[in-house]
Amino acid sequence: MAFVILKDLAYQYPSSTGLVLENISLQIQEGEFVSIIGPNGAGKSTLCYALAGFVPHFFKGEISGEVEVDGRKSSESTLDEWALNVGLAFQNPFNQISGAKYTVFEEIAFGLENIGVPRDEMKKRVEDAMSLTGISDLADRSPYSLSGGQQQRVALTSILVMRPRLLVLDEPTSQMDPVGTREVFGVVRKMAEEGMTVVMVEHKVEWIANFADRVIALKDGQILIEGKPNEVLTSDLLIENGFGISRYTSAAREARKRGLWKKEKLPVTLDEAVEGFKS
Amino acid sequence: MNAFSMYAARESGLHSLHPLTKILMTLLLVAAGLALPGNWTGYFIVVFIIFPLAFWGRVFLNLLSTTWKVSLPFAISVILIQSFFWGEGTPIFEIGVLSPKWEGAMFAAVSMGKIILVMSGFLLFSMTTRPDTLMITLKQAGVPSSIAYIIVTTLQIVPSFQRKALTILDAQRSRGLETEGNLYVRARAFIPIILPLVLGSLMEVEERAIAIESRGFNSGKKETSLIEIPDTPLQKVIRRVILFGIFAFIVFGVLWRL
Amino acid sequence: MKIIINNLHFTYPTGLEALKGISLTINPGEQVAIVGQNGAGKTTLVRHFNGLLKPTSGAISIGEWETTKYSTAKLASRVGYVFQNPDEQLFSRDVLAEVSFGPRNLGYEKSKADELVKRAMALTELNDKAETNPYDLSPTWRKMVALASIIAMDTPIIIFDEPTTGQDAVNVARIANVIAELKREGRTVVTITHDIDFCAENFERIIALAKGQVLLDGLARDVLGQGEILAQTYVEPPQLTRLGKRLGLKETITKQDQFLNAIARD
């Protein structure tokens, strides 16, 4: 059975006038890395909140349908129980700093303190998580003294260290430099290989194509199209609906009109583009 | 104080005391200042006990300047209000209906002594106690973790507001807003700075609640702590004595006023 | 208006040396992108342009004004600065009032100010939102309000700090449009960005910073062709540049048309 199951999910915030999510049905296998793309206002963040239980437990509002993770229904669980299985990191790193800690090391340990991990194991887990995301050298800095990109890495590490079964990330690399972004995608891929299920909202199409197993395109609160990265990210539907596509896809589409791209499939990654243009 | 925390990292005897000892010490001084008779007791305790303690904790200048900055605007308004609205008394000067009284000003100065005592006592505590050790201590003393979290983050509110206010100030100055100059110029700058600060803080509360919930804050499990807080048998004894002292001052203060 | 930076050094009070001797000249009407890894000194550098930071040593002048001699509020008549997070500046009851705030501070005559506000709102496609409270808008549109509020100040120089962060494709295109229009008006645009593809498509000059120093500075195609040097500051060349290189094209590719023409020739 699928690890994550969404059945006919529809949702409306208490303050909003229309549905923010509508008719969402979806299954995600354990250890799968799924990326969600979509224009601003498509409902991506709300979907993240629904997976992490904050919709509806925290935001209230009206929900119908079902969110199920590991055989348990969100509607039959409390937020506190739900949070033990599902970790969420979101875009603004500044508001994810607890404010009660003095150094980055202690900040990352905060969650482990909350769930009662013994001290020696805690230290080991924090050290491992920091070395995984490449921030070991920030251990003694104040979380507030860091740049936005560094704070985003701290926020990600603070969730990774909790070892959630389902990891939900809402634009976790928006303030990172390009190499940092690619490293984070690599780390997330590695976690998925080790069995963690990952749902990640991102705009950076090239890295999604290289690292994700599946892509879901969201528009106006509904799933527009989903499937393998190469199928979804080269679909004409994306362009018609104002999604961002990779420059490789865009160049190959134009090239095809001029007879310079002969293959049937359009490329999304550098390797696919090189192969296609060489032939 | 730096832009990140009230806490000033130093090596000192005061820093190494158990947070509970320090918080009881602070409460003792405050209780003494409020209970003991005499108009100037508050000032006396600040100058002859808190300042020397601050020396010991190597935060004297830090404490002096922060106390000064925080209490000055407060002191000015209290003195103005009390002296101008004092009923019968000796006028300082008279211009038409304006006639501030010496008695009012004196009353204000006496009240300020108590306020400065409380303020400098808690500032000294915050400057020499790491926020996270305080949180652990509170929880060990049986305070629920959500209350402990609120207390600790509230003690950090000054640097946190300061940090945000500086960014907003920069953004508005970049739009040609004058922030330096006479009272009128400064008053005009108030709204463009305070509104984003307040609205931003409201939005921050929601996101922060989500962030700490995601990190198991209400997991209901028995919590552990990364750091161990050193304590000594001597301090345990001292804390009992202080606790008795606080009690004694309260009793004395009540009886004396009956 | 020319920006002249001469051997600029800056050290933060914490002791962090963020800029280590930067010398640059930016000519009137240039479109410059500044790239580099997190912590390279990009924001520290542009904060000197309008006097938010003053040099520890060295000098920077905007036209004939040396920034140490003028307040930020005064320099705001020459340099507009769009901060990364719009929520750090929005405070007015409606969009129109928000956009008018800057021009009013700069003391333009009423008719001139109205004209500037109108143009800025049209350019950022905010006309139908004039009476909306900025906080009722989505983050995307709040960003456009922030842009408009600076553009309306009609400064010869405009700085954007990460304008495309968190924006979708439609809005990125909108921002590219705004930058193109500012170029037509002859204004200087300096942008900090991590979005190197956006950079290649919209800027003629690129400055790469690394550890507080200028690593590369030149025309986009010259800078972006040097992938190995850019890697030192954690920047990867744009997608089409990398593709062109892998395909063995002789010229450095920065734009799609150029790419298509090049492969058509081969």
Explain the layout of strands and helices.
The complex is a heterotrimer of chains A (279), B (258) and C (266).
Chain A: E1 4-12, E2 21-28, E3 33-37, H1 44-51, H2 54-57, E4 62-69, E5 72-73, H3 79-85, E6 86-89, H4 104-114, H5 119-132, H6 148-160, E7 166-170, H7 178-193, E8 197-201, H8 205-211, E9 214-219, E10 222-227, H9 229-233, H10 236-240, H11 247-257, H12 270-278
Parallel strand pairs in A: 3-8, 3-9, 6-7, 7-8
Antiparallel strand pairs in A: 1-2, 1-4, 4-5, 9-10
Helix pairs in contact in A: 4-5, 4-6, 5-6
Chain B: H1 13-16, H2 19-35, H3 41-56, H4 60-85, H5 102-128, H6 131-140, H7 145-155, H8 157-173, H9 183-188, H10 190-214, H11 233-257
Chain C: E1 3-11, E2 17-26, E3 31-35, H1 42-46, E4 57-62, E5 65-66, H2 72-75, E6 79-82, H3 95-105, H4 110-123, H5 139-151, E7 157-161, H6 169-184, E8 188-192, H7 196-202, E9 205-210, E10 213-219, H8 220-224, H9 227-231, H10 239-246, H11 256-265
Parallel strand pairs in C: 3-8, 3-9, 6-7, 7-8
Antiparallel strand pairs in C: 1-2, 1-4, 4-5, 9-10
Features:
heterotrimer; A: 279 residues; alpha/beta; Rossmann fold; 6-stranded mixed β-sheet; 4-stranded antiparallel β-sheet; B: 258 residues; mainly alpha; 0% strand
Write down the CATH class of the domain at 28-54 and 61-78 and 155-237 in chain C. Alpha Beta
SS summary, helix count of chain B: 11
Helix fraction of chain B, binned, reads over 70%
Distance between the termini of chain C: 42 Å
Q: Briefly note the structural class of the backbone of chain C.
A: alpha/beta
Tally the beta strands of chain C: 10
Total of helices of chain C: 11
The unreliable regions of chain B are none
**Strand order within the widest beta sheet of chain C:** 6-7-8-3-9-10
- Run of helices and strands of chain C: EEEHEEHEHHHEHEHEEHHHH
Q: CATH H-level name of the domain at 28-54 and 61-78 and 155-237 in chain C... which superfamily?
A: P-loop containing nucleotide triphosphate hydrolases
Give the termini distance of chain B in whole angstroms: 42 Å
The helicity of chain C comes to: 25-40%
Could you please say which CATH topology of the domain at 28-54 and 61-78 and 155-237 in chain C applies here? Rossmann fold
**Mean pLDDT, all residues of chain B:** 89
For the record, the count of structural domains of chain B works out to: 1
